């Protein structure tokens, strides 16, 4: 299975196609097809027929709006607003004082 540069939950921007410039989070990935589903991007209307019986009960018919997959090459991963889990950098002034052997 090929590896994608984005994963579910990543914030991405569409860089090509009819929704160019749109931002959204990845809802689903399809690595075998090299496609991803981005929330609010590439919206399609799907016509569903009303069913009266089925294993899960009756379904209502009508027009449903949903996201369709787009090719992974048309999206660019953006930096998340979440801060990374990194240790804070040490102050340089303290490090210099320790090296010279002086106490503050």
Briefly summarize what is shown:
This protein is mostly beta strands and 104 residues long. 9% of the residues lie in helices and 32% in strands.
Structure characterization notes:
The chain is mainly β and 104 residues long. The protein has a domain at 11-80: SH3 type barrels (Roll), CATH 2.30.30.30. The protein has 1 helix and 7 strands, in the order βββββββα. The protein has one helix at residues 92-100; strands spanning 11-14, 23-30, 35-38, 43-48, 62-67, 70-71, 75-77. The strands form 2 sheets. It has a 5-stranded antiparallel sheet with strand order 6-3-2-1-7, with no helix packed on it. A hairpin with an 8-residue loop joins β1 and β2. Keywords: Ribonucleoprotein, Ribosomal protein, RNA-binding, rRNA-binding. GO terms for molecular function: rRNA binding; structural constituent of ribosome. One of its GO terms (cellular component) is ribosome. Residues 77-104 have a biased composition (Basic and acidic residues).
């Amino acid at each position: 299975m090929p590896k994608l540069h984005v994963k579910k939950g990543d914030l991405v921007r569409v860089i090509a196609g009819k929704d160019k410039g749109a931002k959204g989070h990845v809802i689903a990935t399809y690595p075998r097809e090299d496609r991803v589903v981005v929330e609010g991007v590439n919206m399609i209307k799907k016509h569903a027929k009303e069913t009266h019986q089925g294993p899960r009960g009756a379904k209502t018919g009508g027009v449903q709006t949903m996201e369709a997959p787009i090719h992974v090459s048309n999206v660019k991963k953006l930096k998340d607003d979440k801060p990374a889990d990194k240790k804070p950098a040490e102050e340089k002034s303290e490090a210099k004082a320790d090296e010279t052997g002086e106490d503050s």
